[in-house]
Design a protein that fits this description.
There is one protein chain. This protein is an alpha/beta fold. It has one domain: Alpha/Beta hydrolase fold, catalytic domain (Rossmann fold, 3-Layer(aba) Sandwich), CATH 3.40.50.1820. It is about 40% helix and about 15% strand. It has an eight-stranded mixed beta sheet, with helices on both faces. Helix 2 runs parallel beside helix 8 (about 210-225). The longest helix has 15 residues, at about 170-185. It comes from Aurantiacibacter zhengii. This is Alpha/beta fold hydrolase.
């Protein structure tokens, strides 16, 4: 797999589709390796005529790891933010947006259609706000403004996402990963066990790095509310969100669309916080139609 130096660190990436096509950059979420963008979706977008680029965010997958960097615990960090204190964090979402900008620069791409999922949507928001010249269009998938007044995750969703596995043995990691996927996944499109097992095992065999998501979560908490920043975004924006997302409820999608001038939103019943294969064609069509309209 190719790697580049972007924003001073090593980033692993891949790309699919015609090299001379309009580029589309996919940015994944918290603790999520780039291969959580299903190849079926990548190929569908490439089939729509885009040069599709995925990359591992810092501190996950095969990209640079910030070994030894200390981050405040999520509960303590959240409480400190509520009383106006801002502890030091190893890096911010703005730093991660600079990574994505650096990927485009390293590949010689002046601007791209940017698609971000969950934390990747937050990173994409920073990229669109701070580097408007690099973002042809923005698609924000099951993401949020960070407004603390919006509805909370369903009971168990955050716990499943942040709870550490019992051990680092492969079978335990696969069991843990499948449980997380089940808890935050789509109630209307449950993944068959064999498909879920194969996807989770591929992630575990590719890379296991439990410290990275802790620092990424610190970056999310540190970022706070982005509503004011979102009002600065000029890129044509599409918000995609599931009506049945247990981790980031659909109200967050509506708030994101309301904050970005001219943004459109499409919600889908039964969709949770994953990308079911049953929705790949529909999502690819929505993203491609939005990008082509620019």
């Amino acid at each position: 797999m190719p790697e580049i130096t972007a924003n001073g660190i090593t980033i692993h990436y891949d790309e699919h589709g015609p090299a001379d096509a309009e580029p589309m950059l996919l940015i994944m979420g918290l603790g999520a390796q780039m291969i959580l963008w299903p190849m079926e979706l990548v190929e569908a977008l490439a089939g729509h005529g885009f040069r599709v680029i995925r990359h591992d965010n810092r501190d996950i997958g095969l990209s640079h790891k910030f070994d030894g960097a200390k981050a405040p615990g999520a509960v303590r960090h959240t409480l400190m933010r509520k009383i106006g204190l801002r502890p030091s964090v190893p890096y911010t979402l703005a730093d991660m947006a600079e990574d994505s900008a650096g990927v485009l620069d390293a590949l010689g791409i002046e601007s791209a259609h940017v698609v971000g999922g969950s934390m990747g949507g937050m990173i994409a928001q920073h990229l669109a706000a701070k580097h408007p010249e690099k973002v042809r269009s923005l698609t924000s998938i099951f993401s949020t403004t960070g407004n603390p007044k919006l509805p909370s995750s369903k009971r168990g969703a955050i716990k499943a996402l942040t709870q550490r596995p019992a051990s680092v043995e492969e079978e335990e990691l696969v069991k843990h990963g499948k449980n997380v996927a089940r808890v935050i996944g789509s109630p209307g499109f449950p993944a068959p066990d064999d498909r879920l097992d194969a996807r989770t095992r591929a992630l575990v065999q590719r890379s296991v790095y439990l410290q990275g998501p802790v620092r990424q979560m610190a970056a999310i908490i540190d970022d706070g509310e982005r509503t004011r920043m979102l009002r600065q975004i000029k890129a044509p924006t599409l918000v995609l969100h599931g009506d049945d997302d247990p981790l980031i409820p659909v109200a967050h999608g509506h708030a994101t669309a309301a904050a970005i001038p001219g943004a459109k939103i499409r919600t889908i019943p039964g969709w949770g916080h994953d990308i079911p294969l049953e929705l790949v064609d529909e999502l690819a069509d929505e993203i491609a139609r939005h990008a082509r309209a620019v």
